[in-house]
Amino acid sequence: MNVLEKIKGGLIVSCQALEDEPLHSSFIMARMAKAAMLGGAAGIRANSVQDIIEIKKTVDLPVIGIIKIEYKDSDVYITPTIKEVDALAECGCEIIAIDATNRPRPNGETLKNFFLGVRKKYPNQLFMADCATFEEGMNAASLGFDLTGTTLNGYTEESKNDVVPNFNLMTALSKNCQRPVIAEGNIWTTEQLRQAKNCGVHAAVIGSAITRPMLITRRFVNVMIGE
């Protein structure tokens, strides 16, 4: 069974903790991934080579790998340059996710030129396009990305006023982009996940609602304090 078949109809759990978060630890993320696997996850999404290496030692699930890093001349921070792609390919990620928004990339490089170089270097690697809009998803498909995700919807200037989770975007991409669509971003409830599934998506990613206890706690606390 190939990777796309393994994740089809499944839940991918994003196990990430940034440096300023209490659970920032490759050991903790690996245990989080183990818990997700035991709960029935079909795949893991993870950030950083260190976390991915530990996760792959711990679970036998496909990994969507990213490296989050900020460059001064760009707002693109998810796998922004070939340096990050090289690192992810070396540690054996089944899928590498890349920001595929229309925002300027580091060094003024266009997404088209960047990805054409990436694809030439890694012809057999699966690549996921993290997008914010329908146009970006369609463009990513035309460039040759293997999967399209709604990951960045609501997080860019162009999409910041969209209602999230954006089920209309999930439906439109599923019907038109001719690539497996991954529902990702702001899914907090089983009802929202069910609705995303009904949009025709290939799989779904959930992160914060499962693996970020600080944010989960804050949501409940806000209820108690009346916000």
List keywords for this structure.
single chain; 227 residues; alpha/beta; TIM Barrel
What do you see in this structure?
The chain is of the alpha/beta class and 227 residues long. The chain has a single domain, classed as TIM Barrel. Helix content is 41%, strand content 15%. It contains ten helices and eight strands. The chain has helices at residues 3-7, 26-38, 49-58, 82-90, 111-121, 134-143, 167-176, 190-197, 208-211, 213-224; strands spanning 11-15, 43-47, 63-66, 95-99, 126-130, 147-149, 181-184, 203-206. Strands 1-2-3-4-5-6-7-8 form an eight-stranded parallel barrel, surrounded by six helices. Strand 3, helix 4 and strand 4 (95-99) form a beta-alpha-beta unit. The longest helix has 13 residues, at 26-38. The protein is globular and about 50 Å long. The relative contact order is 0.14.
What sort of overall outline do the alpha carbons produce when their principal axes are compared? globular
Head-to-tail CA distance between termini:
47 Å
Question: At CATH's second level, what is the architecture?
Answer: Alpha-Beta Barrel
Fourth-tier CATH superfamily name: Aldolase class I
Strand order of the largest sheet: 1-2-3-4-5-6-7-8
Counted by DSSP, the helix tally is 10
Count of beta strands: 8
Q: Structurally, how many domains make up the residues?
A: 1
**H/E element string?**
HEHEHEHEHEHEHEHEHH
For the residues shown, what is the average pLDDT?
Answer: 97
CATH C-level class: Alpha Beta
Largest sheet: 8 strands, parallel, barrel
Radius of gyration: 17 Å
Beta strand %: 15-25%
The CATH topology, please? TIM Barrel
